[in-house]
Specification:
464 residues; alpha+beta; six-stranded antiparallel sheet; 19 strands; elongated
Length: 464
């Protein structure tokens, strides 16, 4: 009969009181309240141990220990790698490895993408902020800074986004949404006067990317639940225009050129459409850089939690684990009572074994039913034990390949996809409206209460 019990076996045995041990009486002074652990710390520790350890059984009935029969052929059982099942509460070694690799790769990829995009946006912001508004005109790619001038006073660049609204009621509260149905723009040439007085004619072309707020509304008088959000560049606005500068020399000679010198022109670059912006240089890039910095920090915290807390036993077994042959000293069954919330309770039967291996080490492990049956009837008395030691922690498991517990697997299966979804929603929602395929606004209240609300004038935060 084994003399050393671990885990459940140790908790199931009650030692008799020691007569020589001192007993406390009401007169004995207790430790001060400041030195005792806080209740919320104890509660947090119990919850954490219950989650990571798979919970604890409220009631338990232990059966007698049984000596396994001696093996006649000297076979060594390797749970999970041979025809014997993996230990209860554990996932197979192949599934554990695939899941751990997938979760680590996903979070590492999210972290790398956020860091790279953060650095790219910071470089873009620095480049935009280095533009000299009074720099000399030069042919080729150029950023023009100045004030808009139009002869007839018309708006040179206007983008209209038509939206259709809908509203719905949930319980006693109303919600609404405005979804983009179409988008069109009205563009015409205009003149930009620089701070030094130089004028440049801007010819935007049919495609323009406008960096501006959707600050104006127009409501349809014929179609209900329809509105138009408008972003526009008006005469007198200070803007930044990125394109290609041509005709920078003033043409001389006779005739019309001498009477009306030709103005330098800014046209769309060959690499893409012209960009017209009313915001400060680097504003959008700085904001997106901050979003990626915060997302990289959050992803790093999640990755560290999974590596240090969830995957630590698996990684320790995978990196430093060594196998040895252990002896089944005794096996037994025990029952745990389960009471569903809306049902009658029931008892569930489990099996466990007392195993000893090299250097006089021993421990109690849960085993599968087939291994218990083999130990009692067929003579299975030797099993593979994998031991690992990392960062001062010593871990043991049955089987030659590392495995994950069911509880830790559930944390990975739920936590990693949830982190990925939140990460994607955050990055997509941070994009300005001109980088979105559809502009969608939403919130609480009736449509009639929000069609001209001031809060709707800010750039939308959702995408369709």
């Amino acid at each position: 009969m084994p003399t050393h019990y671990h885990d459940r076996a140790r908790r199931s045995r009650t030692l008799p009181p020691d007569p020589a041990a001192p007993r406390y009486s009401p007169a004995v002074a207790r430790p001060p309240a400041s030195s005792r652990p806080w209740p919320w710390r104890i509660t947090l520790l119990v919850v954490l141990l219950a989650v990571l350890g798979g919970g604890c059984d409220a009631q338990r009935r232990d059966g007698p220990w049984v000596q396994p029969r001696a093996a006649s052929n000297g076979a060594i059982i390797d749970p999970g790698a041979s025809h014997f099942d993996v230990c209860p509460g554990q996932v197979s070694a192949s599934s554990s490895g695939a899941l751990a690799l997938l979760c680590i790769a996903t979070l590492a990829g999210m972290l790398a993408w956020s860091v790279l995009r953060m650095r790219a946006f910071h470089r873009q912001a620095a480049s935009e902020e280095s533009v000299d508004p009074d720099g000399p005109l030069r042919a080729g790619p150029f950023v023009l800074v100045g004030t808009v001038e139009v002869e007839d006073g018309a708006t040179p660049v206007t983008i209209r986004i038509e939206q259709v609204g809908k509203e719905w009621k949930h319980k006693s509260s109303w919600s609404h949404s405005w979804r983009e149905t179409r988008r069109w723009m009205d563009v015409r040439p205009f003149v930009v006067r620089r701070d030094d007085g130089t004028t440049v004619k801007v010819e935007p072309g049919p495609r323009v990317v406008l960096h501006d707020t959707l600050s104006r509304f127009e409501h349809s008088s014929t179609i209900t639940k329809t509105r138009t959000r408008i972003a526009e560049v008006k005469p007198g606005d200070r803007i930044y225009v990125a394109g290609e500068l041509v005709d920078i020399r003033v043409h001389g000679g006779g005739g019309v050129y001498r009477e009306a010198p030709r103005m330098p022109r800014l046209i769309p670059a060959s690499t893409g459409p012209m960009v017209v912006s009313t915001e400060a240089p680097g504003g959008t890039a700085r904001r997106l850089g901050r979003v990626h910095r915060l997302s990289s920090f959050a992803v790093g915290v999640v990755l560290a939690f999974q590596l240090v807390i969830v995957l630590f036993p698996y990684l320790a077994q995978h990196l430093t684990g060594v196998t040895s042959v252990g002896e089944l000293r005794a096996v037994r069954t025990y029952e745990t009572y389960h009471k569903p919330k809306n049902g009658s309770g029931y008892w569930t039967t489990h099996q466990e074994a007392e195993v000893s291996w090299a250097r006089d080490q021993s421990g109690t492990f849960r085993i599968a039913r087939d291994l218990y049956t083999c130990a009692v009837r067929a003579g299975c008395d030797r099993v593979v034990v994998r031991s690992a030691s990392l960062a001062g922690f010593t871990l043991h498991q049955l089987g030659s390949r590392p495995t994950l517990s069911v509880t830790r697997t559930l944390i990975l299966v739920i936590g990693s996809p949830t982190a990925l979804i939140i990460w994607l929603i955050t990055l997509v929602g941070a994009r300005p409206w001109w980088l979105r395929r559809k502009v969608v606004d939403g919130g609480s209240g009736r449509l009639s209460q929000t069609t001209s609300s001031v809060k709707d004038a800010v750039p939308p935060t959702e995408t369709g």
